[in-house]
Amino acid sequence: MYENIMLASDGSADSIKAADQAFKLAKLTDAKVEIVYVVDGETSKHDVLRNVDSLGMDEERKDKLRAAEEKAVEANVTYDVTILRGNPSATIVEYAEEKNTDLIVMGTRGLNVIQEMVVGSVSHQVIQKSNSPVLIVK
């Protein structure tokens, strides 16, 4: 059924809930999960303005995914972590197509509240643009 599941995660509470569901499905279907975090332009600008060095930025981003990784280990599923740059919704959709993702799992709301108010939620845009099935977890 599912061989390749993408978990779009940003460390938000909803993305942690989505991780639970992604790993349950992966365990049931013996699928591999790719945890994907997309660094958008606003996040990059914020990091530069705070004068965070590149090592510090990488560590902060990895920290946001630590809870999801811990859940993957607890569930005993195979997983990888990928950090990408770009517009979150477009990057998630493009990467899912490139990797032949069977299912995209994500939360309803992420950490970037400003982007959600201006252009709509990332999850909504992924649903609209994706050729892969999308599971939105509330």
UniProtKB/TrEMBL annotation:
Domain of life: Bacteria
Cellular component GO terms, alphabetical: cytoplasm
Main location class: cytoplasm
Keywords: Cytoplasm
Domain UspA per the UniProt entry, residue ranges: 1-138
SUPFAM superfamilies registered for this protein in UniProt: Adenine nucleotide alpha hydrolases-like
Localization (cell): Cytoplasm
Protein family membership: Belongs to the universal stress protein A family.
Name this polypeptide is given: Universal stress protein
Annotated organism of origin: Guptibacillus hwajinpoensis
